[in-house]
Write a structure and sequence with these properties.
- By secondary structure, the chain is of the alpha/beta class.
- It folds into 2 domains: about 5-155 and about 340-420, Rossmann fold (3-Layer(aba) Sandwich); about 160-335, Glycogen Phosphorylase B (Rossmann fold, 3-Layer(aba) Sandwich).
- It is built from 16 helices and 12 strands.
- The chain has helices at about 20-35, 50-55, 70-80, 110-130, 135-145, 160-170, 190-205, 245-250, 260-265, 270-275, 290-295, 305-320, 320-340, 340-360, 390-405, 405-420, and strands at about 10-15, 40-45, 60, 85-90, 130-135, 150, 180-185, 210-215, 230-235, 250-255, 280-285, 300-305.
- Strands 2-1-3-4-5-6 form a 6-stranded parallel sheet, with helices on both faces. A 6-stranded parallel sheet has the order 9-8-7-10-11-12, with helices on both faces.
- The longest helix is centred in the first third of the chain and has 20 residues, at about 110-130.
């Protein structure tokens, strides 16, 4: 395989939905377009997928769990020599790590069985591919243990997110005397992360009556938080295009992780990136990914022990000047290291290295492409309607067709259980 940039065809295929799909496929697609590479986005449920596979030189499979259908597609791809790359930003390919996932969702034995089966199928897809892309060095080390060649391509922001963040900073509300400590949780798997930080947070709140907490996403708060209810504001769901507006109204962003948990260690530094885009300083656990992004005391704070969390929180609460200075430094480092143009150039190098390793030659005969600053960034935005697909019906039909009625019934049970038993803050 040795062609010009225009001749190479890359297909990015996802098997899931949600934020992980956006970060690992939509953003990747945008980076490839900025490089001038012929690329296409797809999903396992797409009817056009077989023809896309037949035309692909490189196929990136994001969280696509193995089944008979996917196996047949990979066999077709191998017949014409396509390069197969598995992609993930989470430790979903190691069933032995399942018990480290801290989520009340898995108290349901049906959900537990389905997820374990999913992890096993993810491992099969990873093993069937030529190489692996991951979001963190920690994940790369886990993949390397399986004997697979692996490269790190970090999660980054998109041109759309940059535009939304600039607008959020322009529309930022005027300052009051309140100081807002914010936490963008995302999912209930972060319950234990937040709980670990509770004693330090409560000490800071007690010592600073004007300090408030704002939480975005699903999070269960224990009874110890009842006395702070009037000082805690929770937004259970925020669309990602609205997230910058919420983050811009934080004074301090926190990103706690339980450091002795493999699933926590595998998380990327995206919470620092998102807050940095709107000039908000972050205090984060000293996990591998955050240590890559944050220079302690310059563009953010790192903490391992409760005393460090408390000291860093107190420093930022006490000084508006420090918050502004550190927030601006965070913004400049995020723009320098995580901009789509920077990530695009890194992606081009990585894909070339993968092809050299697997195929023994460069991916492009005319040299590795370079991204150019677009005169109209909006032209490179990814159609937001893609996030709406596949719908429930499409997903259900795929599961029934390729994984059987038992799996479909299990998925339906989990879906309806969540509808009738939602999780409430403050323990309900």
């Amino acid at each position: 395989m040795n062609n010009s940039i225009r001749d190479i065809r890359i297909i990015i295929l996802s098997g899931v939905q949600g934020d992980t799909r956006r970060y690992r496929t939509f953003h990747l697609f945008q980076q490839l377009k900025l490089l001038g590479i012929n690329a296409a986005l797809s999903h396992l449920t797409d009817a056009a997928l077989p023809s896309l596979i037949d035309s692909a030189d490189v196929i990136i499979l994001h969280r696509a769990a193995m089944d008979h259908y996917l196996e047949s597609l990979l066999n077709r791809a191998r017949q014409h020599g396509a390069l197969l790359i598995y992609d993930t930003d989470d430790l979903i390919f190691d069933p032995q790590a399942f018990d480290w996932i801290d989520s009340p969702d898995f108290s349901d034995p049906v959900r537990r069985k389905l997820y374990l089966g999913e992890m096993e199928r993810q491992r099969l897809t990873l093993q069937a591919c030529d190489a692996v892309l991951v979001s963190t060095d920690y994940l790369a080390r886990q993949v390397a243990r399986l004997g697979k060649p692996v490269w790190v391509h970090r999660n980054a922001f998109s041109l759309e997110m940059l535009a939304a963040s600039i607008l959020a900073m322009q529309n930022k509300k005027g300052k009051s005397d309140e100081i807002v400590i914010g936490y963008a949780s995302g999912t209930l798997t972060h319950n234990r992360d937040f709980a670990k930080l509770t004693p330090a947070l409560q000490k800071v709140l007690d010592a600073n009556p004007s300090t408030q907490m704002r939480i975005i996403g699903a999070l269960e708060l224990g009874a110890e938080w009842h006395r702070y209810k009037t000082r805690i504001h929770i937004s259970n769901f925020v669309h990602w295009m609205e997230l910058p507006q919420h983050l811009a109204n934080f004074d301090i962003n926190i990103a706690p992780l339980v450091l002795d948990n493999p699933f926590s260690q595998s998380k990327s530094e995206i919470k620092f990136v998102e807050a940095g885009l709107v000039g908000v300083p972050t205090i984060a656990s000293a996990a591998d990914a955050f240590k890559t992004a944050i220079i302690h005391g310059e563009n953010g704070f790192l903490a391992s022990r409760l005393e460090e969390w408390e000291a860093n929180l107190n420093s930022l609460v006490a000084s508006q000047a420090l918050r502004r200075q550190m927030g601006e430094r965070a913004r400049q480092s995020v723009l320098a290291d995580y901009h789509p143009l920077v990530r695009a150039n890194q992606l081009a190098q990585t894909l070339d290295q993968i092809n050299c390793r697997v195929r023994g030659q460069s991916l492009w005969s005319e040299g590795v492409p370079q991204a150019l600053q677009p005169s109209s960034p909006e032209a490179f935005w990814v159609d937001g309607k893609l996030e709406e697909h596949p719908g429930l019906t499409e997903r259900a039909w795929y599961i029934l067709s390729h994984r059987g009625i038992g799996t479909l019934l299990g998925q339906m049970w989990v879906y309806f259980r969540r509808l009738i038993a939602p999780i409430f803050p403050f323990g309900g």
